[in-house]
Amino acid sequence: MDITLDKASDTNASLNITISPDDYKPAIDKKLKEYSRTVQLKGFRPGHVPASLVQKMYGKSILVDEINNLLSRSVSQYIREHKLPVVGDPVPDRDKADAIDWDNQTDFAFSYTLGLASEFDIDFADLPSVTQYEIQAGDAEVTSTISDLQQRFHGHTHGEEVGETDTIYGELQQLNAPEGKEMFSAKTAFPMDKMADDAKGQFIGKKKDETVTFVLEHAFPDEKARANATGVKKEEAAELTGEFTFTIDDITRHEPAELNQEFFDKVLGVGAVEDEAQFREKVAEIIRGNYTREADQMLRLDIEKTLIDNTPILLPDEFLKAWLLDVNEGKFTPEQIDEQYEDFTKSVKLQLIKNKIAEKADLKVGDEEVLEATRQMVREQFGFMGGENEEMNSTIDRIAQNYLIDEKNNGQNYTATFNRVLDDKVMENTRTQMTIVSQEVSLDEFKAIAESR
């Protein structure tokens, strides 16, 4: 087999392949023998069909299949061994392929058009610095978070009069039932915050033992809310309409938890803090921790943008546009390809850059690392802690392995996880070589920065 690469420019090339009988005949002879043993043909015993007859019946199709398989392997191997920066897929010269005389030729010539990225290098010393935002929790954020926690860990009190956010308990009684049905009555609870605003006025300010006459579907237009208020199924609640009375037995309301040791222990665990000052500091620490992921994600995006903006790479634009149009099989018009092309090229360049970083740093990913990353995903997704619990760890391990070997998606779960682990390694390596400048910002400042991006 003869393979030559002809470069027309830094970004365009053709791969020319010539195949002779020595390249494909051994494989074809082997396949013909297999057919001779297995083919069933009337008038011949199984395994005794003459080779010449098998050749006449199946020789051409076997030849075509073997040549195609040989081409696929050879092109991939050549690109891999010569480390060609191929973008898109090799595109075969279809006119040359269609002109082949499969019945008479013994030597075959094929040609593939390749799109290449230009040569480039990454000099981390020349890259500008990137900002890592350290989010500080100010008094306003801490106070707001503590207020939310007080509401979450609220207590209950009994009110004298109905308020807008109270829950009222009492007896609901239908005044006029539809013909043939009994009048509905039930002991139930009305959450005032689920009631329609224009109906609340009939209840607000009322006291225990008072009775309110109202139209049920006006107070609870939504059938789901009406079902919750009456305690019946949604389809049954749809039939409950008209005037009802509600006699108030009790009024309860949420009271924010007091800032005391009991509240501190409920939120953070027994004995974690001893006073309000320590509690506020701990809440500020939690707020900072909650936004660490967002800050890290912004840093990652900024690093990627810096790499793209400062690493000149030429791409075969016309080749790629034509390839995108062809590979998407009519899903996009040329105009749509043009609109999305810039974003596509950014992703291509970024992947080329990351591949270069991984190659220069000799970054590798092992099976155990892929499995551990999947274990961690399972822990986070299902809330499993693992630790020293052998039974729980065994369950996590089984779920992780089943996910990775899922045959339904042809190993895509493993490939995706492998790529994610490698990508994390590349980014960590990049962070150690770039200049990262820390900057403290308030939560509001960080949100404004994020929105501006």
Structural overview:
With 453 residues, the protein is an alpha+beta fold. The protein has 3 domains: 2-115, 2-Layer Sandwich (Alpha-Beta Plaits); 124-135 and 284-452, Trigger factor, domain 2, CATH 1.10.3120; 155-255, Roll (Chitinase A, domain 3), CATH 3.10.50. It has 17 helices and 11 strands. Strands 6, 7, 8, 9 and 10 form a 5-stranded antiparallel sheet that branches. A 4-stranded antiparallel sheet has the order 1-2-4-3. Helix 13 packs across helix 16 (412-433), helix 14 crosses helix 15 (390-404) and helix 14 crosses helix 16 (412-433). The chain is elongated.
Pick out its properties:
single chain; 453 residues; alpha+beta; Alpha-Beta Plaits; Trigger factor, domain 2; Chitinase A, domain 3; 3 domains; five-stranded antiparallel beta sheet; four-stranded antiparallel beta sheet; 17 helices; 11 strands; elongated
Classify the secondary structure makeup into a structural class: alpha+beta
What's the story with the biggest beta sheet?
A: 5 strands, antiparallel
Task: Predict the CATH topology of the largest domain.
Answer: Trigger factor, domain 2
| CATH C-level of the largest domain | Mainly Alpha
- Structurally, the number of domains stands at 3
CATH-level-2 architecture of the largest domain: Orthogonal Bundle
Number of continuous helical runs? 17
Helix content: 40-55%
Helix-strand sequence: EEHHEHEEHEEEHEHHHEHHHHHHHHEH
Radius of gyration: 36 Å
Low-pLDDT stretches are none
Taken as a percent bin, the fraction of beta residues is 15-25%
Mean pLDDT: 91
Distance between the termini: 53 Å
Shape: elongated
Q: Could you give the count of β-strands?
A: 11
